[in-house]
Amino acid sequence: MQLAAAQLSQHLQRGLKPLYTLHGDEPLLIQEAADAIRAVARAQGYTERTVHTVAGAHFDWSEVLAAGGSLSLFADRQVVEIRIPSGKPGKEGSPALQQLAESSQGNDSTLTLVILPRLDKMTRSGAWFGALESFGVTIQVDPVERAALPQWIAQRLARQGQRVAPGDDGQRALQFFADRVEGNLLAAHQEIQKLALLFPEGELGFEQVESAVLNVARYDVFKLSEAVLAGQAARVQRMLDGLQAEGEAEVLVHYTLAEDIRALKRVKDAVTAGRPLPMALREQRVWGVKERLFERVLPRLTPVAIDNLLHSAHLVDGIVKGLKAPGWPTDGWQALHRLALALCRECAVQQNTPARKIAA
Q1: Angle between helices 250-272 and 332-352 (to 10 degrees)
Q2: CA atoms of 206 and 198, how far apart (whole Å)
Q3: Is residue 26 within 8 Å of residue 142, measured between CB atoms?
C-alpha cells in the first residue's frame, strides 16, 4: 500500500499497521515521519526498539529475522527498525525482507520499520520492495522543491505561532529565507526554531528575519541545471557561487551544463527530422522537471543559438582543464558563470518572448 507523506498523520490516527517503509533523500522529513510512527507505537505499548543498520555485503540478516520473531522478557511489543543507507539489501537481504514482510501479517507484537534512501524505478520494481509494498505501507518522502520552500517555511513558522507580514513584505521575507536555506532543509528547520527562541509569537518583520537567518544554503549541480533551463539568472549566479564555495569540481559543473546543451541539440535535431517531441525526449532520457523545461524552451530555441552554446561549451571545457580561449576568462569559475548565464538568457528570452515577435 502506497501512502503520501502528507497523509501519514491522518493514517496513524486510524491505527498502526505492522509494517512501514520510508524511502527518500531528505533526512529531516524521513526523521519526522519515523518519529511520528514511533510516537504512536510507544503510546500503544511498543516499548522496546531495536535498530539494525545494513552495512556491507556480509551483513548478518539472521539477527534481523530473529529479532522480528522473538520478544524481550521486558516488553510485550517491540519496534524492529531496519536502516539500509545504500538502498540495496543484497543477495541475502532480498529474501529476508520478503520473509519479514510476509510474516508481519497479523503480527500485533512487532512493528517493523524499514528506512531507505531515494530509490530508482528499477529498485522499486524489485521483488523485495514489492513485498514491502504489498504487505505493508510504503511512503515516498520527496524533498521540498525551491518553488514550494517559502510556503513550507510559512507553515513551519505557523506551528510555533509566528508569521510574516501580509502582502509583498511577507513574501519578500519568505523568499529571502528560502534563498538562505535552499538545499539544506535540516538547517532550515533549525533556523525556523531559532526564530522562535529570538522573537515572541506573532508577526515577524523582514528586518528580524534578515538579522537572524544564516546563509546555510547547499546546492547541487542537478538543481543548477533546472535553474539554468528555467531562466532564473539571479538564482543561477547564487548557486554557482555556492558550489564554488563548497569546493565542487569545475569539470562536474561544466559537464552538467554541457550535457544539457548537447541534449537540447539532440532533441532539436530529432524534432526537425520529424520525430514527435515527447518521443524525442524519451529517447534522450529527459523526464520529470527537466522534461517540462525542455518542452517549454525547445520549440522556440533556434538552431543557431544551440550551435553557439555548443561552441561555448567546447571552449569552457578547455578552460576548466587549464587551457586558454581568446575572449574568454582564464578562470574556470568565471568561464562557467558566462556559459551558464548565456544558456540561462536563451531559456529566459525564449520563454518570455511574445508570440507576435516569434512569428515575425
Answers
A1: 30
A2: 14
A3: yes
Say how many C-beta atoms besides its own lie within 10 A of residue 153's C-beta. 25
Q: Is 39 exposed, middle or buried (0-12, 13-18, 19+ CB in 10 A)?
A: exposed
- pLDDT band for 358, please (50, 70, 90 cuts): very low
Question: Which tens digit of pLDDT belongs to each residue from 120-175?
Answer: 888 898 999 999 999 999 999 998 999 999 999 999 999 999 999 999 999 999 99
Q: Compute the distance between CA of residue 112 and CA of residue 5 in angstroms, rounded to an integer.
A: 18
Decide: 153 and 188 in contact? Cβ < 8 Å: yes
Degrees, nearest 5: CA angle 359-340-356: 10
Domains defined along the chain, listed by start: 2-140 (3.40.50.300), 146-212 (1.10.8.60), 221-359 (1.20.272.10)
- What's the CA gap between 86 and 82, in Å, rounded? 12
Q: Where are the alpha helices (DSSP H) in 199-232?
A: 206-212, 221-229
C-alpha cell at 262: 548537447
Q: Are strands 77-83 and 110-116 parallel, antiparallel or unpaired?
A: parallel
Which cell goes with 55?
552495512
Tell me the β-bridge partners of 139.
Answer: 3, 22
pTM for the whole structure: 0.71
The closest alpha carbon to 260, from 289, 217, 235, belongs to: 289
CA 123 to chain centre: 17
The DSSP bridge partners found for residue 181 are none
Contact status, residue 67 vs residue 50, Cβ threshold 8 Å: yes
Contact 177, 209 (CB under 8 A): yes
